[in-house]
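Issue 218. Parser rejects a valid record. Input:
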Amino acid sequence: MTPQPGGALFAELAILEEATLAPLPVADVEVVPAADYEADDVSVGSARSVAEETATRWLAYELELHGPGHGNPFTDVAVRAEFTCGERTLTAHGFSDGEGVYRIRLLPDEKGVWTFRTFSNARSLDSITGTFHCGLAGPGDDGPVRVHEGARFRHADGTRFLPLGTTAYAWTHQDDEVEEQILRSLAGSPFNKIRVRLPQVQHPPPAALSAAPESPPPWRLPRLGWNLGLVSGTRDDFYGVQSSATTRRSAPGAMRSMAGMTFV
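Output the parser choked on:
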């Protein structure tokens, strides 16, 4: 009988004892905002706010705050807003967008008058209030996608959703020109679902590895720029994260055509 290729190797592997590896400890790092990030002489709610007076149901509404940027605002500052419509109150957490700009986004799911109030450990970002009116959803704005009857998908307004996906895992690693080219290509395609990678660590390109240690990093951490909608937090609903039709990117026409795309 002719020996099978690799037979000796598999025979040796079969008699090896299986090693038991202890699980690696998981570091639970708690980020605590700085209680003294701004001095007591800074007026409460003094940050400049930029917000529209109107919104559309199922499209992202953004509150932009211009406040402090010293230290590390990504970890030293916590900011959120409570949005109220009638008897319902939704909480949306904000984030630092660099250079003293903070953004808080909400996907309003009910027409009517909404009010908001901010909460922050940074005095200038705290207690900022405002009001906006949310109108009816526009054509094609059917709301976030949710799991329906276990194996199907529907939009929040009951419209059936048939997922047709593609993959662009490395999209967040491309430069602006390539990113915009991909968006335009997707806008003219039948796809309504796209898979992208959102790495926690940005790896430098090969050219950056040879840069002098004292040189500033030549790479950047790209931003998606998509306004992701609300999800309920369940495992099934993870597959129902939906982008809004609006974006801070420079291709509003392309992104308008991508309204309703889901991300997994």
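Fixed in the parser; the record now loads. Residues 45 and 128 are 5 Å apart (CA to CA).
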